[in-house]
């Protein structure tokens, strides 16, 4: 029986061996367990005839997964005769998947797999495989191009195509003499090899095991320029110049280096100029600016080693057909001092819910500190953690503890010499239980993004999702169903983002290609990578609509790439990136890569893939390379289209050419007047022109931070190409201290968004440092010092009454706002210019900053409020730990409290988080071209969305049903193509609105009259599109207008602009007839609200006016921002108990509560606004002009119906605007507008003033002050029913409202028609603007002004924006006119300039006067007056607050 049994077994065994082709077969009876190989789709697995992982190696990487199934019997152990098994997936104790991996030499191998079960004979299987060397007879390797091409890092490259093995899994080997191979077959040529073989053929040998090789040959890159080889540079400059005269280089910042520039008469964009740096390698020079035939190149002398202060360099230049010219020299470097914590003892204190670090030091120099937990990073500098002053401070920071043990490190950012590390014990024992994937699905959402839907189970719960190994987010941000123990998540993935998941105990689930997820059925995690059938050669026949391009200065160029390849899947995701130098600058300057990725889409009508893309203005004349980004991070590089000529290449960024201190070593006293210090400088940008920038300076004692933003319009003299500027700091006597102000950060941007950057302690070396022309002067020019002869002396400021208005916050809802208030006192007073910051931190080291705003100001106490909207899911689950730092007194002492400090003082130190995801939130959108209609946008809570509201810039609003919804995360809609910004908002089936989100299309236009014949079929050039003719207009329109009419000098506008601005514009757009103004006007404006906004209400006793005033405005990252101070004035007869309104595009708002996205109301701590009283709030908005509040609603206390007040006679002007022309110059849009002012009231209007911003030219009205205009001197009135017309040109792409409309009327019969100067201005609007401004003023002013005074209106003008309010014992008064205040007894007043007026004598009287727009007074007997408004506070006489408005009498 036993013999029969064995015979049958070996017969079966021989059959199995035959069937399995000798790969895996049993060698013992298998009644108790089965071992099978898992059929993995990954190319790394289940390959039994392996090839080496490199052509030169004699080793293969073997990797096999196998399933052990013991039919319900517990598996006790699995062992291997070679190596060891790694458990990959445990279905249960009797069904487990293992991985065997090993590196093996060339030859044949077998591995025995032994399975031991409980009370069962040992089961063994054998796995056979081999490692074979390459057979060159079956291999074909070729260079894909005849000539190497230039790539983004200024090196030269060739691409190799391979047949016979997969170059993505087997790397190509070479000796390295001529270069090195990169991923997927790219070969980077060695610069030293090129030096030795510049004009000879270039060769590369691919080495194989056993001494075999394949040789490839290509022509030199410069062989294509045989007749264009450049001469030696005709000018070379070093920065600083003395560095070549044996003078040591004093670093201009932590990681700065000397450099040189060379000017070369070259028609080759990349002549061969290279720097050989000892112990570093070879660096090709960087093309910085110039024109074809006269280029400038920059060379950076990098030194990376510290064992010596000297470095040897060789600069190598071409000299036509002559041998290369080599110049040797040695540079000497002084070491840059970098402050660090290496000698500082840092303490760690661990408590039940937090841990805190603390240290004291006697020196601080503006650096950031880097806190790291696990892979979570937090880098922050002053004021986080700081208390004291820079000569003697303490730093104390606290964080919430997490469940797992925390390996916590701290150091000075960019300096590893002071690395400190700590261990924070875990809160509970760690359970090692890996999270398990239950299911997953990946869906293509757009050409650049995919949606991963994945269900994960975990015994302790998932709490974190990590991207790029450094960015961790709360997993609840992506949870769409279930809970943390068994939940489904939706995560966007694109070419660079693959998520990993972590549970509460720190166990990670990392997803890779080929990770096994399920065994029944077999499921592997597979990413949407480019298939094996698609390789470099698949994209090699890309052609372009336009080749041999001639660029126009300051204008982008619009092109189309075509690809015809039937072997590429039609739904494959791949995109084009132009690798011209300007685009590459965008790519490397912390900009989003998606903004310069242009996806290919398949066009069935021509059987081709197409990609519309933008070539940026003022880029290189060159054969421009491009990259194809496909699937997830597959990259291929190609030589592409040719730019024959670019009239101006500029990739340098604006530079300082002069830089002077203003009032250096200024001496001032605490009893003297306010003074100023700062810098005056000249900025040059030869081709693009300077646009905007900022300088950040920090105080050496108090660390006060001063970020001074400015634009080209702030220049003192010159133009955008070479202009002088001045930035000054105000020194108030009450804050008199001796200290130095140091510039630590500068960013300058030109009109093509090319930047130059300086950071004092950055670890990035900036080739484009704005100070390179000033290296000789050293860092000393970046400092300016003050000397205080009577310094203010004080101790640390004290915080009191710290109030948190939220015990918890729902971070999944639409209202995620938290609010705070607190008081800070100090005998010397608190600096107004340095707002304290409240920090909210999570256990993932996420941080939100809430910058505070002062509400009340007294000599010794400031009252601050602060509100901030938290990011979606911020801190959940867990607490938000609070801390407050950065309140600085006038003596230079700064205070701060950590979470522990707040707790110990009895204040609330944390906020609980909740999460109820029922509000849709829009967070981002795919880049969309202006000619496309498919828009994909992303966010949360989209699964119930039923309506998408789209608001276009022409005020048109449309409602769209989503074309396709992807889970809860993405929506596709079809919009009307537009070049202008528009907004989207969604509504779900529960009627809940999302936030309103702005979309900015990338402008793309079909080229008009291209300068060369298209290289591709013209079927892609629609005939209907060229109506977008503004591309022809800018060259003749206001090319220099913005620089000649800066906003601060509008008085020059009429004389400088009219004759040259719109002279050519109307003639090139004849279809827009200017005379059709009334019928085409889209803006007959109740919507064009003035800055005083009355709120209509059915109850005449319940009304208010809202006055809005711009107190600051700036441009950052090409976005306009304004800071608004808004005042609510109760003009009714009842106390206001509630007021709600809407505002959009808000980045920060204070003193009001957020009720839902874009909706706000009076704060919860304000019971009412009394009759005649005011309340103010403020906000920062993305806008260039004031936008009225919308959807206003007011509630009042119920009071008896008052006696009706007689309604005054109407005094109303209707403003109608019509855009009669528009064009674009470079990146700037312009519109020409005609305006009709029609008197629709019952009385004659004698005065009308208004505001308009960003004007280039205006005619038919008269300038009053910056941005404010009124009726011209030759128009003395507008009778009832009559009109007056004027026009203007504005920097905008859409119509903007006219603000501050203030008509003044008189209740008298209207003047006879003969008195109305209709004959003068009627010609103005109908004529082309070029004819208007020069004629009108000279013909008319002498006719009517003499009659004007006799018709001065007797009726009081409508109230100007004057308000007052009382808070505690403080009287606040706001006015645009002079304010007069008087007090009896102890009184203290301070105005908007910081000037004080006070007395402490109980029997004295005091009078104060200010022309600032604000004064705050404290006292018991106060009277303040401005124009028609008088406000009184007299506590002893029973008059706590009284307001008298004479304009209402």
Would you kindly provide a brief summary of this structure?
The chain is mainly β and 1449 residues long.
Describe this structure in words.
The protein is mainly beta. The protein is 5% helix and 46% strand. The chain contains ten helices and 107 strands. Strands 54, 56, 57, 60, 61 and 62 form a six-stranded mixed β-sheet that branches. The chain starts with a helix and ends with a strand.
**Class per helix and strand makeup:** mainly beta
Strand content: over 45%
Distance between the termini: 124 Å
Annotation, overall tally of beta strands: 107
Count of helical regions: 10
Mean pLDDT: 80
Question: Main beta sheet, described?
Answer: 6 strands, mixed
Q: Helix share of residues?
A: under 10%
The poorly predicted ranges are: 1-22, 41-46, 1009-1091, 1093-1098, 1199-1209, 1308-1360
Shape: globular
Rounded to an integer, what's the Rg over CA atoms? 37 Å
Keywords:
1449 residues; mainly beta; six-stranded mixed sheet; 10 helices; 107 strands; 5% helix; globular; disordered N terminus
Helix and strand topology:
Blueprint: H1 2-19, E1 24-26, E2 34-37, E3 49-50, E4 59-69, E5 75-80, E6 86-92, E7 95-105, E8 107-117, E9 120-131, E10 140-143, E11 149-150, E12 156-163, E13 179-181, E14 186-189, H2 191-196, E15 202-208, E16 212-218, E17 235-239, E18 259-264, E19 273-277, E20 281-284, E21 286-291, E22 294-300, E23 310-319, E24 322-332, E25 347-350, E26 354-361, E27 369-373, E28 376-380, E29 386-389, E30 392-400, E31 406-412, E32 420-424, E33 436-446, E34 449-457, E35 462-467, E36 471-474, E37 479-482, E38 486-493, E39 500-503, E40 508-510, E41 516-519, E42 522-524, E43 543-544, E44 549-550, E45 557-563, E46 574-578, H3 581-588, E47 598-599, E48 601-603, E49 608-615, E50 623-630, E51 634-645, E52 649-650, E53 655-662, E54 666-668, E55 675-684, E56 690-699, E57 705-711, E58 717-718, E59 722-731, E60 739-750, E61 755-759, E62 783-788, E63 798-804, E64 808-810, E65 817-825, E66 837-841, E67 847-851, E68 853-857, E69 861-869, E70 879-888, E71 894-897, H4 899-904, E72 910-914, E73 921-925, E74 934-940, E75 945-951, E76 957-960, ...
């Amino acid at each position: 029986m036993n013999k029969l049994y064995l015979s049958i077994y070996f017969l079966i065994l021989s059959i199995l061996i035959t069937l399995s082709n000798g790969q895996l077969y049993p060698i013992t009876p298998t009644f108790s367990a089965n071992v099978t190989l898992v059929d993995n789709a990954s190319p790394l697995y289940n390959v039994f005839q392996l090839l080496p992982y490199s052509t030169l190696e004699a080793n293969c990487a073997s990797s096999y997964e196998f399933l052990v199934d013991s039919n319900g019997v517990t598996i006790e152990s699995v062992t291997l005769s070679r190596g060891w098994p790694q458990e990959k997936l445990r279905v249960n104790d009797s069904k487990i998947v293992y991985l065997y991996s090993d590196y093996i030499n060339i030859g044949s191998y077998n591995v025995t797999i032994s399975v031991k079960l409980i009370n069962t004979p040992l089961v063994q299987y054998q796995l056979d495989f081999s490692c074979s060397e390459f057979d060159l007879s079956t291999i074909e390797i070729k260079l894909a191009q005849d000539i190497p091409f230039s790539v983004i890092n200024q090196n030269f490259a060739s691409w190799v195509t391979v047949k016979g093995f997969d170059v993505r899994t087997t790397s190509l080997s070479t000796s390295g003499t001529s270069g090195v191979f990169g991923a997927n077959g790219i070969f980077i040529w060695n610069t030293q090899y090129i030096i030795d073989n510049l004009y000879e053929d270039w060769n590369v040998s691919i080495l194989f095991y056993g001494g075999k090789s394949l040789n490839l040959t290509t022509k030199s890159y410069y062989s294509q320029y045989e007749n264009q080889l450049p001469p030696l540079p005709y000018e070379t400059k070093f920065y600083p110049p003395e560095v070549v005269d044996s003078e040591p280089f004093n670093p201009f910042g932590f990681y700065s280096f000397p450099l040189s520039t060379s000017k070369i008469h070259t028609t080759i964009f990349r002549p061969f100029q290279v720097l050989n740096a000892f112990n570093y390698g070879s660096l090709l020079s960087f093309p910085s600016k110039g024109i074809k035939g006269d280029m400038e190149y920059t060379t950076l002398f990098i030194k990376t080693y510290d064992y010596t202060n000297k470095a040897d360099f060789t600069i190598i230049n071409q000299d036509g057909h002559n041998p290369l010219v080599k110049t040797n020299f040695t540079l000497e470097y002084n070491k840059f001092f970098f402050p660090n914590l290496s000698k500082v003892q840092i303490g760690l204190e661990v408590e039940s819910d937090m841990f805190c670090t603390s240290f004291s030091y006697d020196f601080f120099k503006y650096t950031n500190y880097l806190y790291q937990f696990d892979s979570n990073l937090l880098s922050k500098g002053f004021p986080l953690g700081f208390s004291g002053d820079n000569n003697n401070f303490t730093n104390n920071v606290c964080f919430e503890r997490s469940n797992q043990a925390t390996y916590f490190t701290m150091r000075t950012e960019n300096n590893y010499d002071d690395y400190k590390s700590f261990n924070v014990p875990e809160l509970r024992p760690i359970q090692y239980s890996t999270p398990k994937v239950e299911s997953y699905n990946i869906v293509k959402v757009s050409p650049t993004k995919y949606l991963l839907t994945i269900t994960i189970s975990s015994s302790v719960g998932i709490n974190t999702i990590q991207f790029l190994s450094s960015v961790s987010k709360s997993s609840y941000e992506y949870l769409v169903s279930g809970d943390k123990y068994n939940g489904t998540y939706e995560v966007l993935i694109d070419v660079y983002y693959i998520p990993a998941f972590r549970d509460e105990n720190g166990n990670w689930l990392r997803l890779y290609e080929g990770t096994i997820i399920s065994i029944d059925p077999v499921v592997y995690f597979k990413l949407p990578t480019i298939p094996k059938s698609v390789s470099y050669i698949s994209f090699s026949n890309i052609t372009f609509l336009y080749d041999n391009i001639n660029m126009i200065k300051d204008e982008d160029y619009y092109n189309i790439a075509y690809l015809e390849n039937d072997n590429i899947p039609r739904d494959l995701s791949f995109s084009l990136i132009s690798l011209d130098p300007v685009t590459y600058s965008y790519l490397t300057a912390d900009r989003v890569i998606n903004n310069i990725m242009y996806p290919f889409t398949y066009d069935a009508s021509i059987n081709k893939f197409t990609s519309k893309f933008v070539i940026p203005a003022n880029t290189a004349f060159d054969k421009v390379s491009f990259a194809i980004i496909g699937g997830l991070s597959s990259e291929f590089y190609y030589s592409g289209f040719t730019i024959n000529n670019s009239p101006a290449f500029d990739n340098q960024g604006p530079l300082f050419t002069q830089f002077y201190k203003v009032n250096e070593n200024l001496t001032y006293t605490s009893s003297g007047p306010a003074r100023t210090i700062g810098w005056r400088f000249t900025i040059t940008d030869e081709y693009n022109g300077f646009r905007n920038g900022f300088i950040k300076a920090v105080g050496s004692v108090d660390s006060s931070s001063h970020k001074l933003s400015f634009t080209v319009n702030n220049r003192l003299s010159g133009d955008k190409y070479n202009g002088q500027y001045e930035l000054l700091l105000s020194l108030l006597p009450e804050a008199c201290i001796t200290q130095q102000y140091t510039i630590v950060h500068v960013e300058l941007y030109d009109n093509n968004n090319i930047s130059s950057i300086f950071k004092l302690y950055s670890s990035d070396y900036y080739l484009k440092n704005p100070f390179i022309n000033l290296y000789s002067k050293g860092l000393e020019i970046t400092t300016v010092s003050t000397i205080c002869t009577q310094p203010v002396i004080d101790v640390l400021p004290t915080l009191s009454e710290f109030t948190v208005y939220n015990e918890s916050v729902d971070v999944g809802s639409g209202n995620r706002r938290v609010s705070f208030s607190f008081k800070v006192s100090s005998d010397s007073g608190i600096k107004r210019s340095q707002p304290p910051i409240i920090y909210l931190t999570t256990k993932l080291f996420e941080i939100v900053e809430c910058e505070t705003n002062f509400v009340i100001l007294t000599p010794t106490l400031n009252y601050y409020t602060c509100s901030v909207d938290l990011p979606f899911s911020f801190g959940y689950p867990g607490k938000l730990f609070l801390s407050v730092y950065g309140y600085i007194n006038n003596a230079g002492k700064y205070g701060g409290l950590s979470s522990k400090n707040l707790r110990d003082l009895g204040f609330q130190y944390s906020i609980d988080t909740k999460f109820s995801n029922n509000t849709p939130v829009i967070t981002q959108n795919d880049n969309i071209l202006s000619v496309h209609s498919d828009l994909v946008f992303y966010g949360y809570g989209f699964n119930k969305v039923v309506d998408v509201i789209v608001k276009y810039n022409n005020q048109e609003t449309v409602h769209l049903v989503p074309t396709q919804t992807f889970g809860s995360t993405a929506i596709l809609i079809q919009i009307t193509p537009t070049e202008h910004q528009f907004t989207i908002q969604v509504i779900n089936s529960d009627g809940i609105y999302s936030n309103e989100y702005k979309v900015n299309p990338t402008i793309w236009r079909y080229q008009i009259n291209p300068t060369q014949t298209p290289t591709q079929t013209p079927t892609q050039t629609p005939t209907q599109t060229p109506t977008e003719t503004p591309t022809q207009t800018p060259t003749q329109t206001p090319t220099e207008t913005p620089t000649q009419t800066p906003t601060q000098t509008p008085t020059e506008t009429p004389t400088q602009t009219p004759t040259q601005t719109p002279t050519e514009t109307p003639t090139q757009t004849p279809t827009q007839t200017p005379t059709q103004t009334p019928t085409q006007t889209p803006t007959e404006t109740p919507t064009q609200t003035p800055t005083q906004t009355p709120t209509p209400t059915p109850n005449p006793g319940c009304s208010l006016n809202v006055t809005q005033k711009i107190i600051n405005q700036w441009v950052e990252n090409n976005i306009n921002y304004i800071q608004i101070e808004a005042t609510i004035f109760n003009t009714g007869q009842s106390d206001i108990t509630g007021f709600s309104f809407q505002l959009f595009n808000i980045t920060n708002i204070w003193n009001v509560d957020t009720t839902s996205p874009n909706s706000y109301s009076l704060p919860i701590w304000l019971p009412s606004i009394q009759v005649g009283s005011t309340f103010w709030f403020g906000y920062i908005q993305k806008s260039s002009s004031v936008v009225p509040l919308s959807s206003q609603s007011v509630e009042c206390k119920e009071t008896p119906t008052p006696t009706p007040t007689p309604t005054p006679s109407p005094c109303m002007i209707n403003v109608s605007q019509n855009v009669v022309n528009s064009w674009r110059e470079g990146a700037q849009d312009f519109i020409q507008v005609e305006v009709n002012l029609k008197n629709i009231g019952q009385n004659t209007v004698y005065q009308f003033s208004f505001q308009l911003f960003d004007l280039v030219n205006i005619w038919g009205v008269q300038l009053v002050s910056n941005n404010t205009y009124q009726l011209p001197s030759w128009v003395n009135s507008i009778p009832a029913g009559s009109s007056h017309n004027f026009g203007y040109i504005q920097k905008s792409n859409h119509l903007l409202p006219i603000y501050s409309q203030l008509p003044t009327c008189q209740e008298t019969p209207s003047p006879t028609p003969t008195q109305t100067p209709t004959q003068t201005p009627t010609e103005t609007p109908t004529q082309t603007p070029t004819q208007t401004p020069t004629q009108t003023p000279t013909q008319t002013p002498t006719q009517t002004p003499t009659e004007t005074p006799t018709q001065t209106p007797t009726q009081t003008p409508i109230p100007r924006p004057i308000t007052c309010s009382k808070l505690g014992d403080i009287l606040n008064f706001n006015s645009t006119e002079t304010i007069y205040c008087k007090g009896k007894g102890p009184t203290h007043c301070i105005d908007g300039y910081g000037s004080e007026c006070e007395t402490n004598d109980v029997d004295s009287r005091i009078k104060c006067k200010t022309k600032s727009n604000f004064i705050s007074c404290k006292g018991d007997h106060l009277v303040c007056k401005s124009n028609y408004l008088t406000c009184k506070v007299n506590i002893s006489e029973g008059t706590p607050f009284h307001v008298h408005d004479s304009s209402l009498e």
